[in-house]
Each structure stands twice: as C-alpha cells, then as structure tokens.
Amino acid sequence: PFIGFLAIAVGQIARSCAMWHAKHNFTHMIQYQKRKDHVLVTTGIYAYLRHPSYFGFYYWAAGTQILLCNPICLIGFLVAMHKFFSDRIREEELLLIKFFGNEYLEYQKKAFIWIPLINNLTLNDLSKPI
C-alpha cells in the first residue's frame, strides 16, 4: 500500500506542477493549430519530463490500484493507459515538431517521457506506422 500512496503522491504533484507551470499553454485537448501565443515550455518540471501531466496521471492511476491491492484492475489500467498515452503522445509529438521544429527535436534529447514502453519516443519512432 505504501508504494501505491507514493505513486499517487508523485503523480499528483507532477500533474499539478505541469498545469501550474505551463499556465495558458496547458490544455486537455490536443491542439492542431499553433496559437500565436503558444510557446514551447522547457523549464520547471518540463525541463525533466516531456509530458509531465501524462506521467502524473499514469502513476496516479496505477498507484490507486496498488493502494487498493487490486491487481486485476491494475493490469487493466496499465494496458488501457499504455494504449491511450502511446497514441496520444505520438500524435502530440508530431504536432509539436510541426509547431516548433528543431527547437522541439533538441528538447526531446533533454527531457524524457518516463512512462514504461513509451519512455524514449523519438522522431524515428514517430515515423513508424502505429
């Protein structure tokens, strides 16, 4: 149970920091058009995590099932979250490269995703079919 509580706490802190630090650049919807005021956030928690809100939700959700000692739902959550986040991050990464070009490609080298099996998504991975 302690590991579950720790995962929940780390996840919530990461997600809250992501929302606070990105401010108006944070949205729950994928942006398909770059707004005039859209900037690439690479400081604060974003200096270490490329998608800190997704990282936070992933570990928060997994932590809830660990805390509840619910292995069947934990497996279900992990499978569903992996599918959701791998698809969503792939789509967002392509858009961010389109919006910010080399600036985003350089950022990819410095900040990681830290979600299992999605951690080191790069431009080469993005060009492969889903």
UniProtKB/TrEMBL annotation:
Protein name: Protein-S-isoprenylcysteine O-methyltransferase
Residues that span the membrane, as ranges: 57-80
Membrane topology: Multi-pass membrane protein
UniProt EC number: 2.1.1.100
Taxonomic lineage from the root: Eukaryota, Fungi, Fungi incertae sedis, Mucoromycota, Glomeromycotina
Pfam families: ICMT (PF04140)
UniProt organism field: Gigaspora margarita
Cell membrane found in the keyword field: no
Keyword entries, A-Z: Endoplasmic reticulum, Membrane, Methyltransferase, S-adenosyl-L-methionine, Transferase, Transmembrane, Transmembrane helix
Assigned protein family: Belongs to the class VI-like SAM-binding methyltransferase superfamily. Isoprenylcysteine carboxyl methyltransferase family.
InterPro entries reported for this sequence: ICMT_MeTrfase, PPMT_MeTrfase
